[in-house]
Design a protein that fits this description.
By secondary structure, the chain is mainly beta. It contains five helices and 18 strands. The strands form two sheets. It has a 16-stranded antiparallel β-barrel with strand order 1-2-3-4-5-6-7-8-9-10-11-14-15-16-17-18. A two-stranded antiparallel sheet has the order 12-13. Helix 1 packs antiparallel against helix 2.
Length: 436
Amino acid sequence: MLAFAAALSARTAAGQKADSAAKADSAAQADSIALVKQLEKELGSPAADSTAVIQPEQAGIAAPRASGGYMNIGFVSLTDAGWSTASDVEALEPGDHDPRVKGFTIPNAELSLDGAIDPYFKGAANIVLKIDPEGETGIELEEVYAVTTSLPSNLQLKLGQFFAEFGRQNPQHPHSWAFVDQPLILNRMFGPEGLRSQGLRLSWLIPTSFYSEALLGVFNSNGGTTSSFRSPDSPEIHGGVPDERPVNNARDMLIVPRLATSFDISETQTVVFGASAAFGPNNSGPSARTKVYGVDGYWKWKPAAAEAGFPFLSMQSEVLFRTYDAAERIAEDGASGVLPAETFNDKGAYAQLLWGIKPRIVAGIRGDWSTGDDAAFDSQLRADRFRLTPNVTWYPTEFSKFRVQYNYDDRQGIGSDHSVWFQFEFLLGAHASHKF
């Protein structure tokens, strides 16, 4: 804006020195309008229908980024309110950014920073504030990373702390979700905050006629956001006293490969397919390991004559499998003695359908299912679950939204519950607008 003001001042001064004041003023006004239009073009908000065309990053594809001296600052806040027949809402809604209490809560308020570091790197950071079920405010450094912009051979390197690019939902922030809560199977596999840690990711944009990319992430396998691996919360899975195993070699790291591709199947339809995996140690014993596999798909239809991206139909689904090799271990409760070595096998899926009825109104429905085999240690986290979730979202603009959602839950050993949730979101600053 300073550059704009300086340019405008210079043009006005030039006009005052011109022989014809009227012509100079007219020229300055025309130039000002042109500058404003150019500024709006460069800084304008993303289109309302930002999922009308599959974005490279949305498909797990590294898009080239322009470099320059800039930094964007944005803030997004979610407020949830609702009621449930469940007596323990935290057990019903285990996700850290889910509505976990009856009444009101703020599960996510996010400060985002991103910009160019120099001609070779860009950086981003996300700082999250949230109010827990006890009403206490917490703060965490959710992501902070740098990404290269000019490596040869279609390569890109990402370094710092960030969400692992496993599937479609895990890398997304809560304000990008199409539903109030995260899918059940993702909480089962990756815990309440999703799979993220400190590490690096190398990606290669494969030279094909359509989008195709291979990614390989290497992360620390410990910490509260590495559920299924060396997380301090892992005893909720295996029931034993956690083994404080050190990092001795590459096998003690968390490895996350992914392959993603996207292409048009017609002028009005686009599909995305992906396959992901996560391999690493768990803390049930000195040599115990976990393997997680997943496949995902996305389809979107939008007519050629769509108005502001509407109407549209989209479908998204993920299927995940986990093999958790638990070593012989001392029971954490102290009363169960020694638990035998065993393998936990878990699986589950979700599928969701979104219908853009008309500009700024989207209806959706999602089905969730997760299950696991019997074991010497049985946890409610591994109990069979089913959820059916319809919702409707209204976007007054791309910087605010209202959502109402109903959940029908059926849990093994507990029975069924019914919940209704309302959500309001607003965006300030340069944060990305909503993905319709």
